[in-house]
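Treating backbone geometry as a discrete language has practical consequences that deserve illustration. Part of our work consisted of pairing the sequence of a single chain with a tokenised description of its backbone. What the numbers capture is local backbone geometry rather than side-chain detail. For completeness, the protein is quoted in full, as a sequence line and a line of structure tokens:
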Amino acid sequence: MQDATSDGNARRLTRREAAFDVVAVIVLVPTAAIGSGVLLGFLFASPPRLADVVLVQALLVLVGVYALLERRGSRFAEIGLVSPRANDPGRALLVLLAAFGVNAALTVAIFAWSPATLEEHLQGLESVALGLTEGVPLAATIALLLLVGFYEEILARGLLLTRLRQILGGYWPPAIVSALLFALGHFYQGLYGMVQTALLGLVLAAFTLRWGTLWPAILAHSAVNILSVVQLREIGIPDL
């Protein structure tokens, strides 16, 4: 089993330093979300598109992660952003299949328990998908979703997971905590959406810790985003 931190020469942080970075990540996400809207509202008279807000938010988060790494004298490779490998696409497919399997099991359980909950969740996702793609060409939407998958993995399975492992040690405790924090960042999707996101985060964290690279998770996460948004944009909500 490999460590998500791939550079054996990296300085080992104290638990206090690692905890500071975890808190900084938790603060960074809403700050970037609010800051992107404020910045675009200041620069442009018309209300910004959701796609523009997400783009600026992604860039602000990446700048924030870079600043935190610079503060520690670290590099992106130390949180799992190592050089791409030839087997990354195959591994990403395995992660994607695992994520779909877990999501399918959850969907069946929720549908059996409360079909209305599932329908409400899908309607919320459709609203987000339509807002994200409104006035945006399909190619630009796909590029944006690739960026979202990239920055969220650097943040959640990169910096956050690495720091949690330095605090908690082991394999499953940091994977579970990082998945829960990842889910909290998607609170706008409601309780069902947060459970769904937590399970996806747990799958991504487990494979990232296993392989010591972020690329399979980045590719799989981006694929989930693209398939979900394009389906909701082009096809809509399936009949339940």
Summary: Residues 15-234 form one domain. The two ends are 41 Å apart (CA to CA).
